[in-house]
Amino acid sequence: MLNSVPNKEKEKALAFSFLKRNGNVKQRENRLTFLIFVAPILLLFTLLFIVPLVQGIYYAFTDWDAVNPVLNFVGLKNFVKIFTIDSNFIPAMGRTFYFVIFNVFLSNIIGMLFAIAFTNDFRFNNIFRSMIFIPNVISMVIGGFIWQFMFLKVMPQAAANNSLLGFLDQSWLSDSNIVMFSIVIVSLWQGLGFMMTIFIAGLLGIDGSLIEAGTIDGASGWQSFWKIKLPAVLPTVAVGAFMNIAGSFKIFDTVFSLTNGGPGRSSEVAMLEIYREAYAYKNFGYASAKAVLLALVIIIFTIIQLKLTSDKEGY
Amino acid sequence: MKAKTIKSALLTIVMGIIALLWIIPVYYLVINAFKPLKDVVIRTGAFPTTLFLQNFIDVWKMTDYPLLFANSFIITSCSVALIVLFSSMAGYKLARSSGKVANLTILYFLVALVIPFQSIMIPLVKLMSQLHLANSKIGIIILYTALQSPMSIYLYYGAVKCISPSLEESATIDGAGPIRTFFSIIFPLLSPMTSTIVILNTLWLWNDFLLPLVLISDATKKTIPLGTSALMFGSFMNKWNLGITSILLATIPMLVVYLVLQKYIVKGITEGSVKG
């Protein structure tokens, strides 16, 4: 009885040390697995994303260009120049904002109208849906070329051959007042199928019993849309809208192939201006400063989008 | 009942007209690719009168289409395979770890979802040439893997959280190592997410333009969008018959993939965007 106490303690200690040793092995194994599973992509990502990200911010404060191989730190000079002397970047940002506003508004509104139509039951519903989705799988740069052909050849000829289609004969790509709107048309053609699809998913995800309860309470189709469907689908709309905003600010491919910024600079969007500053004029430091500014705008909208997505997941 | 029939008939007509309008550009591409230059310019809207195939023969040779296709195919398929491999492993391990390191790592990858490619582009081009990875297919594949994986890691991370850990625990008791456990038990369970990730990345990478534009100048390494656009600004300028045909050839691969796998593609894109 008396001896049993130290024995028990000894046993306990033994058991404990066994557990501890086991835990250590397990921990070491766990760390090794972590290294095998996570480290390769972590290193690759750091080297090819984080390193250039930090470099890019640094370059924004230098005078790096093709002429001068030595980088000099110039402080805020590049940023001051953007807002004072530079006559290209701010107008390019303005055009980008114009595009974003029209593109986002129209693709959300029209996308929602299409989605509402397609959630009804009618013949060929699926075929029509997939026809509208087709441009989404075409590369945007190719989409721009397709529409160059539409605007320059197909539409003027259709207008000439049929007086009813006379309105198609516009200087779509050569009138500086119309050209940004032509870009919106191409962008809608390519992007609406996507917006429509996520809205359909949102509308179909609504709890059917809610709508049923509304109908029993005497809600008309229109009322049930405004009071029940719209509030329920709003989180999806918000996510889609902000994703669309962030994406629209990045517009480059479509403009590159459709107008290449013309006529003059009247469709030169922010990303095209940055691309030219870097690769046509080789002002890499200065172009980096512009890229940092554009990135800041995109980051704000992306963060809002991610926050809305996680809020939505929280439901 | 009658009102309902009228409504659905109306919807068929209205949405049918809209859907036709949507694919009109594709129709004009197809009919004009089979016409000589004169007919393309003068009678753009007319149906071809003869089966004129010379455009395809010329464009096939001038663009070196098989080479462009092979480049796009190799770059896209290898990148997607590596993205799936790395991001499924990382997403799995991060979802199953609860320490501070794992949480910080996930936040670290989140940076990639917020920062646009445009802000790293200029330094990246310099860095890639310093690493001798510019102008090389392997370089582009490695780069796509690095840039696209974070998004997929998130999607896998979420999917793994929905799988009960008891499955792996019993495999571990049976003596399987972590790598074998992952590939024989977890990875097959993740296949719905894998198909979403494969679809999303295939579409993005196949159609990507800006990254190849700044990193590939060697004509033998160009992808379909890049090679096509180079000729549209070059030899095909004002030669609409050839331009139209090369655009059509550039559109065909993804169009065929879409028509065959439509259901999965729409589902993949919807899930990827709503969850991501």
Could you explain the architecture of this structure?
Chain A is mostly helical and 315 residues long. Chain A has helices at 4-59, 77-83, 89-118, 125-133, 140-161, 179-204, 208-216, 221-249, 253-258, 270-279, 284-313. Residues 1-5 and 13-21 of chain A have low confidence and may be disordered. By secondary structure, chain B is mostly helical. Helices cover 79% and strands 0% of the residues of chain B. Chain B is built from 13 helices and no strands. The model of chain B has no long low-confidence stretch (mean pLDDT 90). At the A-B interface, α1, α3, α4, α5 and α6 of A face α1, α4, α5, α6 and α7 of B.
Counted beta strands of chain A: 0
What is the residue-averaged pLDDT of chain B?
Answer: 90
Chains forming the largest contact: A-B, 94 and 96 residues
Strand content of chain A: under 5%
Task: Please tag this protein with its features.
heterodimer; A: mainly alpha; 0% strand; globular; B: mainly alpha; 13 helices
Summarize, please.
The complex is a heterodimer of chains A (315) and B (276). Chain A has 315 residues and is mainly α. Chain A has 11 helices and no strands.
Topology (SSEs and partners):
The complex is a heterodimer of chains A (315) and B (276).
Chain A: H1 4-59, H2 77-83, H3 89-118, H4 125-133, H5 140-161, H6 179-204, H7 208-216, H8 221-249, H9 253-258, H10 270-279, H11 284-313
Helix pairs in contact in A: 3-6, 3-8, 3-10, 4-6, 5-6, 6-8, 7-8, 8-11, 10-11
Chain B: H1 2-33, H2 37-42, H3 54-62, H4 65-96, H5 100-114, H6 121-130, H7 137-161, H8 166-173, H9 178-189, H10 191-207, H11 210-215, H12 224-232, H13 240-275
